[in-house]
Design brief:
The complex is a heterodimer of chains A (782) and B (161).
Chain A: H1 18-23, E1 38-44, E2 50-56, H2 58-61, E3 66-71, E4 78-79, E5 86-87, E6 93-94, E7 100-106, H3 109-117, E8 120-125, H4 132-135, E9 165-173, H5 176-181, E10 185-193, E11 205-211, E12 215-220, H6 225-236, E13 243-247, H7 263-272, E14 278-281, H8 284-289, E15 296-305, E16 311-323, H9 329-338, E17 348-357, H10 371-389, H11 393-398, H12 421-432, E18 446-457, E19 466-473, E20 479-482, H13 492-504, E21 511-513, E22 517-518, H14 533-560, E23 567-570, E24 573-576, E25 579-585, E26 593-594, E27 600-601, E28 606-612, E29 633-644, E30 650-660, H15 667-686, E31 717-723, H16 745-757, H17 768-781
Parallel strand pairs in A: 1-14, 12-13, 16-17, 20-21, 30-31
Antiparallel strand pairs in A: 1-7, 2-6, 2-8, 3-7, 4-5, 9-17, 10-15, 11-12, 11-14, 13-22, 15-16, 18-29, 19-20, 19-28, 23-24, 24-25, 26-27, 29-30
Helix pairs in contact in A: 10-16, 13-14, 15-16
Chain B: E1 5-12, E2 15-22, H1 27-34, E3 53-56, E4 59-62, E5 75-77, H2 90-97, H3 107-120, H4 126-133, H5 144-160
Parallel strand pairs in B: 1-5
Antiparallel strand pairs in B: 1-2, 3-4, 3-5
The chains are: A alpha+beta (782), B alpha+beta (161).
Chain lengths: 782, 161
């Protein structure tokens, strides 16, 4: 990178895809149709656990327009990201209410749904196991009696056959019992979060067509074109070339569209329907009931510190309620464990993270990847510790945050390039007026409080995660950037466009990041998760642009009859360094240069760049020691809220959020991530959570009963603050910031409620009812 | 199935449509499947998310809860009718410039809800803007940018008048 002034990077460029999206021209999978396309519907299980005794599909087959009816006994494929435990359709047994048991493809959606409604199934209901605490008891019903026969990723995950434990992640550093003994004060408490739904506005949708010769083409609302292809190839035992995956515009993902979802079912339906394309779109109810959620957690955390507020030890048990299948849940349990002591220097640490099967809708990746859940406990526990020590909560955090030279609980040494949690903390404390009394509420039944929390997260990704970018020049000297990461709203394509324009020395209007991913044409990218696309894609764009410039300069040098080193580029032109009046526009170089006599040199310019994770190691299975993090992003929130002591209703007045972004590539888009993430975090804090009946039915699978924040529920003010400690290997020093705004928002709310009311809350969501009950309980005590 | 068809005549984005539709067809299905105006989205099919918002005689409705036959003789406006002669409206431009669009799936409904508001009230108060937009769910933006865009469009449209 040169020292020249940046034209685009760091500026608030508007998103290029805005035009398609505000006009209704943007085509999502929901909007696509193929000639001859059939529509599919699924029949979900009404039981949380049952044996399938008999299925009679004859009436469904007889419905006019029905082209295929499938049940699990016809399908032998097992699916799974890390642990292959999931059938395409339930076979022999159902493991959660909402699990697809049968599916129909028909000429119309109406016919497919009517056919599903007349499939006759005899179940033998079994007692479900619905609480992870019960599931780990000896003698608990086994959700997967055949766990030992499944394939899993060895050396990374450790399922326990004969139990409901899908993974047990261990972190051991120092001697935790000694550390607790050396502590002057120890707090121990248990915290829970309920499972929640991602709620992308576009529900999961796929169109699949089985093609002759064991091939398939798929259009899907997904975050991961290549991972979808890879998992499909693996599941069906096909070469990767046999499967082509397209990803058009995607209407939100938040982690819920990573991995594989409805794609395999759509493929087998198409195959059963003689290769007619099949469209399968989840209803909103299925999005809650059938599509995976964010799993719940029960955390028991003990923290000990000396009387001057230095943390000596943290011991935690994280018990994850994974639901019926492992999916991403096992990796959430792994990643959140290595972050499970918060961004603090903790000399003695012991964490056991158990990912446990139950008969509930299963868990998957969700923005924050387990960090909101574990830090709900850790960041509340730090405040409890502050109360016990009589030290201000900001001061207690200040004394323990990771600094250069400290070691993380997996043994990684913090360097100057890691970012500064302390600066984030100071910034939000100042912004919220920490230590100064807030205004008095007008209404005498209301009280105000302030709360603070910190956060950290690194991308949870394989040690070999990689990404490639191709830049190809058009005839007129404009550049197309081809990537397979997906911009499902976060704005990464705009950021990559800025970097490409900067590096290619091209006006940004002449750079286009191609929107439709297609595994046959766009270069490899692992998947768009973990807040790593701008980081890895940005690095790859820089390299691809350099490759293009090399080619442009080589051709220009021939035209100028000089050496490439004598040529420079700016504003879409190549010119002679020592005589800037001699210039050639890219349009005359992009396909090759033609001399006045007709002789031509060079050729079409196509550049290639790539990036692969470097220096990462698997965690030791016995100790959890290792290097899992490509980079860490640190942050902090401060919240001021008002709570009605009679009703428990909370009004969030102000949220200040600071993140160490390394370098803000686009302030407007980064602010958009913060505001959106904070509000999503408030959803988890205050309202959102699945409720189940005693027999395991989800009771709130609709927007009427499952409330997400609306325009009326937003804080009066959200103040995004960015610290810029450059990431040495980040593009322009940047690191990821997309998931982080959501993490630790509930913790700050919980801490502010303590400040306001003097009550401590342990269970999410912090509904008005729960708050009101806590107020009543406190009154009863005093 | 031999559902009885009903002849209806309606105006969609200024263009008259005369069609026969089944009684049970929703306005949303009619727009998306018959006219291929897929800008209008389905987010829940139950009138709870607002992604399918269109204007019916100038008033915002969730088109998943309106039958196509109910639109007989009436005027329907969708997001595809918001730009005029290839020119984005001030409202659309404000959505882009204020970063009120992320994944974009709620955007058409948001724009139509805002258009409905500005048609009946060119100078809305803060409370009126929030009230008008509160029936439309967005999971990406946290709403702040959307409210800012509506505020800005209201001001700019008044100034342009």
């Amino acid at each position: 990178m040169s020292e020249r002034e940046l034209r685009y990077v760091g500026t608030s460029v508007s998103r290029e895809d805005g035009l398609d999206k505000v006009t209704g021209a943007a085509k999502y999978t929901h909007d696509l149709a193929l000639p001859g396309m059939l529509h599919a519907a699924i029949l979900p299980s009404p039981h949380a656990s049952a044996r399938i005794v008999r299925i009679d599909t004859s009436k469904a087959q007889a419905i006019p327009g029905v082209r295929a009816v499938l049940t699990g006994s016809e399908l032998t494929v097992r699916l799974g990201l890390y642990l292959r435990d999931k059938p395409i359709l339930a076979n022999g047994a159902v493991r959660y209410q909402g699990e697809p048991v049968a599916a129909v493809a028909a000429e119309t959606l109406d016919a497919a749904r009517r056919a599903c409604s007349v499939i006759d199934i005899t179940y033998e209901p079994l007692p479900p196991v619905l609480d992870a605490r019960d599931a780990v008891e000896p003698g608990a019903p086994l959700v997967h009696p055949d766990l030992g026969s499944y394939e899993w990723m060895k050396g990374v995950f450790s399922p326990k056959p004969g139990t409901n434990v899908a993974h047990h992640q261990v972190i051991r550093a120092g001697d935790v019992e000694r550390g607790l003994k050396e502590s002057d004060a120890v707090v121990e408490a248990t915290f829970t979060t309920a499972p929640v739904q991602h709620v992308p506005l576009e529900t999961h949708a796929v169109i699949a067509q089985a093609l002759p010769g064991d091939r398939a083409e798929v259009w899907t609302s997904s975050q991961s074109p290549h991972t979808v292809r890879h998992l499909l190839a693996h599941a069906f035992g096909l070469p990767h070339q046999a499967i082509r995956v397209h990803v058009p515009y995607v209407g939100g993902g938040f982690g819920g569209k990573a991995g594989l979802h409805l794609e395999p079912l759509a493929i087998v339906l198409s195959k059963a329907a003689d290769g007619r394309p099949v469209k399968l779109v989840a209803t909103r109810e299925e999005e809650f009931n059938t599509i995976p959620s964010r799993q719940g957690i029960r955390s028991t955390i003990a923290i000990g510190a000396t009387k001057d507020g230095k943390i000596r030890a943290l011991r935690a048990t994280y018990l994850w309620d994974a639901g019926a299948y492992a999916d991403y849940g096992v990796n959430v349990g792994r990643a959140a464990a290595y972050s499970g002591a918060g961004p603090y220097a903790v000399p003695h640490c012991s964490i056991d993270s158990y990912v446990v099967y139950t008969n509930k809708v299963f868990g998957t990746a969700y923005r924050g990847f387990g960090h909101l859940e574990v830090l709900w406990g850790v960041e509340r526990a730090i405040d409890l510790l502050a109360q016990k020590l009589g030290i201000d909560p900001v001061e207690l955090r200040r004394r323990n945050l990771l600094h250069e030279g400290d070691r993380t609980i997996t043994g990684e040494t913090i360097t100057a390039g890691h970012g500064r949690p302390d600066l984030c903390l100071e910034a939000v404390a100042k912004e919220i007026g920490w230590g100064q009394p807030g205004e008095r509420p007008k209404d005498s039944s209301k009280v105000r409080g302030k709360g603070i929390s910190v956060l950290h997260k690194a991308p949870a990704m394989p040690t070999s995660t990689s990404c490639a970018v191709v830049i190809k020049f058009d005839e007129d000297g404009a550049a197309d950037v081809l990537v397979s990461g997906v911009d499902y709203g976060q704005g990464t394509y705009t950021t990559l466009r800025q970097i490409a324009a900067e590096e290619l020395r091209l006006p940004i209007e002449r750079v286009h990041v191609v929107n439709d991913c297609d595994t046959s044409f766009t270069p490899y990218d692992w998947q768009t998760v973990a807040s790593r696309f701008a980081f890895m894609g940005g690095n790859a764009v820089i390299q691809a642009a350099a490759d293009c410039l090399r080619q442009l300069k080589a051709t220009a040098a021939q035209a100028f009859e000089t050496r490439p080193e004598e040529v420079e580029c700016e504003d879409g032109h190549a010119f002679l360094a020592k005589d800037k009046s001699r210039r050639i526009p890219y349009s005359k170089l992009a396909l090759g240069y033609t001399f006045p006599n007709g002789n031509s040199v060079g050729g079409p310019v196509i550049g290639h760049g790539r990036y692969i994770a470097t220096g990462l190691t698997h965690l030791d299975l016995e100790t959890g020691q290792g290097h899992p993090a490509q980079f860490w992003t640190y942050g902090a929130h401060a919240i001021e809220l008002e709570v009605d002591t009679e009703t428990g209703e909370v009004e969030v007045l102000k949220v200040a959020t600071a993140l160490d972004a390394g370098k803000v590539l686009n302030p407007k888009l980064c602010q958009g991530q913060v505001v959106g993430g904070v509000v999503q975090g408030l959803g988890s804090a205050l309202w959102e959570g699945f409720q189940f009946s005693p027999d395991g039915r989800l009771l709130n699978p609709s927007f009427t009963d499952y409330k997400i924040p609306t325009a009326k529920d937003t804080p009066h003010e959200i103040v995004p603050i960015f610290i810029e400690t450059p990431q040495p290997d980040g593009p322009y020093g940047a690191r990821g910031v997309a998931e982080h705004p959501m993490i630790s928002v509930p913790s700050a709310v919980g801490n502010a409620l303590h400040d306001a009311l003097g009550v401590d809350l342990f269970d999410l969501p912090l509904t008005a009812e729960r708050i009101q009950r806590a107020i009543e309980a406190k009154k009863a005590r005093t | 199935m031999s559902a009885k068809l009903h002849e209806i005549t309606l105006t969609v984005n200024g263009r008259e449509e005369r069609v026969a539709v089944p009684a049970g067809m929703t306005l949303l299905e009619f727009l998306r499947e018959r006219l291929v105006l897929t800008g209008t989205k389905e987010g829940c099919g139950a009138g709870e998310c607002g992604a399918c918002t269109v204007l019916l005689d100038g008033r915002p409705v969730t088109s998943c809860l309106v039958l196509a036959v109910e639109a007989d003789g009436r005027d329907v406006r969708t997001v595809e009718g918001e730009a005029r002669d290839g020119q984005l409206s001030l409202l659309q431009r404000a959505f882009i410039e204020e970063n009120a669009v992320q994944c974009g799936f709620c955007t058409p409904g948001m724009i139509m809800a805002a258009r409905g508001l500005l048609l009946r009230n060119p100078d809305p108060s803060e409370e009126e803007i929030v009230e008008a937009m509160a029936g439309n769910l967005c999971r990406c933006t946290g709403y702040e940018a959307i409210l800012t865009a509506v505020r800005r469009a209201a001001r700019e449209e008044r100034e342009a008048r």
